[in-house]
Design brief:
Chain lengths: 71, 661
Amino acid sequence: MPVTNEKDWEPKIVAFFCNWCSYAGADLAGVSRMSYPPNIRIIRVPCSSRVHPRFILRAFERGADGVLVSG
Amino acid sequence: MPRIGVFVCWCGSNIGGVLDCPQLAREAASFPGVVYSVDYKYMCSEPGQNLIIEAIKEHRLDRVVVASCSPRLHEETFRKALARAGLNPYLLEMANLREHCSWVHAKEPEKAQVKAVDLVRRAVAKAALLQPLVSSQIPVTKRCLVIGGGIAGIQCALDIADAGHEVILVEREPTIGGNMVKLDKTFPTLDCSACISTPKMVAVASHPNIKLYTYAEVAEIGGYIGNFKVKIKQKARYVDHDKCTGCGTCWEKCPSKVPDDFNGGLGTRKAIYIPFPQAVPNKPVIDANHCRVFNNKKCRVCEKLCPTGAIDYEQQDTFIDEEVGAIVVATGYELFDWTKAYGEYGYGMYPDVITGLQFERLVNAAGPTGGKIKRPSDGKEPKTVVFVKCVGSRDEAKGKSYCSRVCCMYTAKHAHQLLEKVPDSQAYIFYMDVRTPGKGYEEFYQRTVQDGAIYVRGRVSKIYQSGDKLVVRGADTLLGRPVEVKADMVVLATAMQPAAGVETTARLVGAPVDQDGFIQEAHPKLRPVETHTAGVYVAGCCQGPKDIPDTVAQASGAAAKVVGLLSHSKMSTSAMISTVNEALCTGCMLCEPVCPYKAIEPKVITERLPGQPPRERTVAAVNSGLCQGCGCCNVACRPGAIQVKGFTNEQMLAEVDAICL
């Protein structure tokens, strides 16, 4: 995680969302015109059990500040 | 190098109003592998799809990225467009610009634009690694199992059977008919319920394509869409139905009297019984809990009197195996047990506080009173009757949060029937709201008001006995004052809830239930009769409270889906399932226990290596009919031999890399 004192620093969050629940939930958030911060990037997986620990480590290696696995 | 085309959709102003789509398309052109990119107002429209098809041909595209709405909405649409252009449909990747970006970040368009670029970059990175996929074919057993023989199950079974497919209908009660045959009249037309449902019951029994199992339950279900294996438990009836003629001697002479569940406990039946005279099949069963023979007493009256020797006290439960291609769950509803929750209404202490279903039996000519409205305590004709709506419905504290949908209408019907049948009677209806959404429903309600029913807007806070009257205390919230009615009888419109045992059925078929225990449909609007398990459909009140017209419509809808499935002798499975690279598989079988669908089995292969004798070794094998493509096995596999097609390790890592850039 970059150590920074910048006030406008925003974390970069990578999310692995299950197609059948959380991804659909994120769709529903959109359909319901809810609003959330734009620093989350969603990757669709067929099930949260598809998320290999390697994917999470790779995200951190590539500069993600947080990883969210939801299913 | 792949030749990727990127198609950015405006979705009118849904995406185009927040994001700069032309800029996105220009940016996408710089991503590796992209040879063509364009934006368009409505990519899913006919001209939009043609634009994709033309571009595929003109620019020799071999991978397509559509940046538009959720793939859950239009992935199929665009896959078909790819297929029309002669491209394998699985060479498509979508970027979700609408649900995951423009709609949720409408207030921050600049940041949304940055995110949108990332989302498109991710889709391009994955697209570059996509492989053409083909689905495999599995056979379809052209037979359907319908669980539950109420009006939903009956309608569904008849529709499927009429279309020429075999149906196995399983009902746990001794007769089919469910709750509908208990009703007297049906709103808003006041059709006689039995007159319209019993002919359907007879049609089920006599249909050459329907095999009916009553007094039976589904014990086990295995397999998958097109190929389910079902074990049905036929409970012992202690009456041989092959010999029985249904003459009725046994139940006339049986000395044991039991409270009659069919009449809501208002009358009695015998220990050997048919639930009601028009039961299908019209042959009795012995209720072993109440029969004297099973309680070590002397009796055997029915055995002695039966002219055909059909009584068999030694009969055992039997199990029957059936194979089906589709399953419809139509297990129906029961009433919420108000006696455990509503102390202020007496916890069921007062015999003259009854439920709507009991009232149905009281006004029913086939009921315990022969259709004369008599109150249970002393058999007097009630002159003043209070109807209380929303008992258990719309009451999170004591019952259910949902509206049961039928109570407003059947209460109006009950009030109408009371006013019609009992001279000088008074009907008071305590309500929260009057909801009449249905054809002719509002008109029926207005008619009841004109008949003289008194509607009081407010809840009842207390019911207590005073002499031979029930005092009902409540509030009229429109007038803002307390109300007290001295009533002869009180009818509670209790909530509908899923019939007992729905969780077991749901678990057997692998369908989830919602927070209230109703079976969850696959999509509330667009897939209302399907469940999340392929090949399993839902009809009637086990999916949510509904009235008879809606139930019948849903049952026919489920039947249409089943007929659609059974009209093919083979079906293609999902292409995005696990596949084993046998060269890498070590046969450790770690994948087998993690698979929730039991889709993986060991398989012995013979390997021929140059210069060595052939040798046998074990590898994992995936059943394409069972695999749902979840990817558990993919993660468990140490050598990386099992991969989910369309979600391979390589593809996923490329996505992570692209999205983190």
